[in-house]
Amino acid sequence: MQTCIACGFCDNKKGLCKFSLQEQDTVDKFYQELFQAEKAIFIAPIYFYHVPATFKAFLDRSQAWFALAQEQKPARNVCVDLILLGAREKGDKLFEGAKLSIRYALNSIGAKLEKSLCLYGLDKHDDLAGNFHKQKQVLDFIC
Question: 15: domain range?
Answer without folding.
Answer: 9-142
